[in-house]
């Protein structure tokens, strides 16, 4: 018996002599927790841990074992054995914590960086596998742990901010999935987590020093929050009355961060901010038109007001760009063409809405017409009458 123990130990040492490579996919689940052989599988892992002497070896081994736990948990979930899946999910969380802890304990900066990159890649793989796992699934703690570890080991503020923003997006989608199932309490929890993670993402983004990175991140926030708002408004329609306040608050948070991200972008690149304002203004208009078609006039009126605000903000940013000495010819041409399209839509909708809703549309028409005229005037003053004439003919 002693001879077999010695041989087993030697095998372990040989295995540990070869560095564990970053896996590009999850391993096969192999022997699963519902097998009588599983205890021997875990015993062998215990020996591996015993002979991992350095923080680097311990971190790599913990990451490898975390991948095995995740593969096993997924297999148990697939087989309809949630009790096994939940237990192994807890072990996955422990192994990921170990990987992060040992990775941070590495003294050499270059080696620590390498390990963090390996852990970061692994969490991306794990999250891709867990993308469809929702809060009512026993594997959900694995998803949240992979997110948290991925954010913690990110080497730059930019990467932390992006990962946190991605996490916020997942919470919005999970809230929608739980609303579809009528799980109001889980909807509430996901929406609260969404707000927290969105705020963290923005705080990381605000700390970015490089203007180019700041610009790219603000664009990401503006685009992402626009999607989040759509998802959350869908959730709002499905939850009971007592759950609506927290959803409305999250929508307000999304709208605030959306506008503030565009304002911050305007400080870095006002022309890009104008382009996005026009894009989102058109989106507001299309959504308002859909609301009118469904007879939801009050909601349409709110969207028309949001549309007006975006067009007005776009015009303000053009003035800022002009004062900064930027060439505004191209963007003003875009304003003319966009507002021309908007006016057609507004006039079409104006005919179909009840009398009490016409005032909101008429105000939006005024804003569009004013924006169009202001843009044409800017083209004329820039001594580009030919562009102004051509643009007027196109609209």
Low-pLDDT ranges: 1-22
Tell the overall outline.
Answer: elongated
Strand content: under 5%
Query: With helices defined by DSSP (H or I, 4 residues minimum), what is the helix count?
Result: 15
Could you spell the SSE succession in H and E letters?
Answer: HHHHHHHHHHHHHHH
Helix content: over 70%
Report the average pLDDT across residues.
Answer: 87
Count of the domains: 3
**Strand count, sense and closure of the main sheet?**
none
Strands, count:
0
Question: Can you describe what's shown?
Answer:
With 395 residues, this protein is mostly helical. It has 3 domains: 155 residues, no CATH class; 113 residues, Up-down Bundle (Ferritin), CATH 1.20.1260; 106 residues, no CATH class. Helices cover 81% and strands 0% of the residues. It is built from 15 helices and no strands. The N terminus is likely disordered.
Reconstruct the topology from this structure.
Layout: H1 2-17, H2 38-50, H3 55-78, H4 82-104, H5 109-130, H6 140-153, H7 157-180, H8 184-206, H9 211-236, H10 244-268, H11 270-293, H12 297-323, H13 329-352, H14 358-381, H15 385-394
Helix pairs in contact: 3-4, 3-5, 4-5, 4-6, 5-6, 6-7, 7-8, 7-9, 8-9, 8-10, 9-10, 10-11, 11-12, 11-13, 12-14, 13-14, 14-15
């Amino acid at each position: 018996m002693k001879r077999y123990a010695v041989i087993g130990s030697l095998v372990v040492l040989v295995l540990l002599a070869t560095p564990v490579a970053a896996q590009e996919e999850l391993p096969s689940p192999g022997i699963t927790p519902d097998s009588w052989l599983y205890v021997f599988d875990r015993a062998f892992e215990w020996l591996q841990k015993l002979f991992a002497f350095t923080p680097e070896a311990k971190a790599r081994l913990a990451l490898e074992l975390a991948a095995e736990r995740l593969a096993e948990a997924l297999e148990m979930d697939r087989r309809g054995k949630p009790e096994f899946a939940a237990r192994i999910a807890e072990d996955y969380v422990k192994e990921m914590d170990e990987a992060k802890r040992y990775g941070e304990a590495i003294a050499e900066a270059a080696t620590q960086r390498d390990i963090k990159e390996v852990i970061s890649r692994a969490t991306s793989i794990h999250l891709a596998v867990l993308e469809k796992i929702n809060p009512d699934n026993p594997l959900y703690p694995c998803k949240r742990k992979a997110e948290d570890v991925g954010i913690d080991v990110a080497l730059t503020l930019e990467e932390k901010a992006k990962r946190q923003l991605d996490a916020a997006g997942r919470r919005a989608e999970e809230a929608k999935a739980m609303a579809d199932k009528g799980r109001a309490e889980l909807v509430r929890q996901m929406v609260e987590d969404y707000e927290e993670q969105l705020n963290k993402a923005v705080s990381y983004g605000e700390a970015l020093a490089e203007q180019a990175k700041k610009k790219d991140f603000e664009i990401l926030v503006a685009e992402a929050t626009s999607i989040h708002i759509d998802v959350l408004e869908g959730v709002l329609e499905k939850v009971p009355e007592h759950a609506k306040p927290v959803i409305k608050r999250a929508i307000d948070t999304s709208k605030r961060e959306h506008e503030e991200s565009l304002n911050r972008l305007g400080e870095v690149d006002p022309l890009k901010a104008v382009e996005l304002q026009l894009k989102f203004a058109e989106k507001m208009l299309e959504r308002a038109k859909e609301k009118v078609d469904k007879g939801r006039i009050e909601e349409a009126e709110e969207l028309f007001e949001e549309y007006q605000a975006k067009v007005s903000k776009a015009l303000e940013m053009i003035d800022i760009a002009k004062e900064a000495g930027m060439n505004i010819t191209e963007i003003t041409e875009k304003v003319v063409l966009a507002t021309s399209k908007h006016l057609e839509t507004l006039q079409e909708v104006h005919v179909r809405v009840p009398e009490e809703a016409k005032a909101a549309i008429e105000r939006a028409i005024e804003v569009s017409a004013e924006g169009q005229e202001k843009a044409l005037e800017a083209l004329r003053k820039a001594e580009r009458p030919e562009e102004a004439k051509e643009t007027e003919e196109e609209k």
